[in-house]
Design goal:
Layout: E1 7-10, H1 20-28, H2 35-52, H3 59-73, H4 80-90, H5 103-113, E2 116-121, H6 125-134, E3 143-146, H7 157-166, E4 174-178, H8 181-189, E5 193-197, E6 213-215, H9 218-231
Parallel strand pairs: 1-2, 1-4, 2-3, 4-5, 5-6
Length: 233
């Protein structure tokens, strides 16, 4: 019986692509410097709550709604029409994100090792593929899976299981790399090896289940996790 190919699964936003462009876009609208972090935290909070109550809301709709709330709350916007105009200027930035400096080398190492690279996103497949092309990563990514396919937000266990199944992988032959403690915890719960990359957070959340490996280098995580996967073949 032929064994399945090992799979390295990467979260997309903040893990692969920086949100610095979003920070600049929000600042250009006169919003406080902390707005990006508040926006992303509230977006995820409400998305997770909706998913937990069996109500699926796609990323773009959740992002638009979260921005509207923030514009009225911290941006001093009182008219929905004005808010919509600002939102229409901000949302396209999600298609203009830059990859972190260590991404190309890390993905290149994964390909050298013969490990499949899967980008698994809470966003849309179309936008993710656009970002991959924009950053010159097409030849380094084997698969893109969006939660839109099965309508369940990460970190639900079934989301990781469905994503791995779609690329003919197996959880025990896969590893997840993410910049979010909730994401590595979700992947761990689904049976994947896990690696946490230090990006926006200086410390892994101490109340969350620890990942197998932590590093501030994506190359280091790919090196160690691919080594574990290949040794287990």
């Amino acid at each position: 019986m032929c064994k399945r190919k090992p799979v390295l699964v990467f979260d997309v936003i903040e893990t692969i692509f920086s949100l610095n462009a979003l920070t600049r876009a929000l600042s250009a609208e006169g919003l406080p410097t902390h707005t990006k972090d508040l926006f992303f935290a509230q977006l995820l909070r409400d998305a997770f709550a909706s998913s937990a109550t069996d109500c699926y809301v796609p990323f773009v709709d959740m992002a638009r709604g979260t921005l509207e709330v923030l514009l009225h709350t911290v941006g001093g916007v009182n008219e929905t029409k004005h808010a919509d105009t600002i939102i229409d200027r901000i949302l396209p930035v999600f298609g203009q994100l830059d990859a972190h400096p260590d991404v190309e080398d890390a993905l290149g190492l994964a390909k050298e090792r013969g490990v499949d690279v899967l980008f698994f996103t809470n966003g849309s497949e179309q936008n993710t593929r656009s970002l991959i092309a924009r950053n010159g990563l097409i030849n380094l990514v084997d698969h893109v899976v969006s939660i839109d396919t099965f309508r369940r937000w990460k970190p639900a266990r079934s989301a990781y299981e469905s994503a791995i199944s779609q690329v003919d992988g197996a959880p025990e032959q896969s590893a997840m790399i993410a910049a979010h403690a909730w994401d590595t915890s979700g992947a761990r719960n689904a049976g994947l090896l896990t690696g946490w990359i230090q990006r926006q957070d200086a410390l892994f959340h101490p109340a969350m289940p620890a990942p197998c490996i932590q590093s501030n280098s994506l190359v280091t995580l790919v090196d160690q996790l691919s080594g574990h996967l290949l040794a287990a073949k």
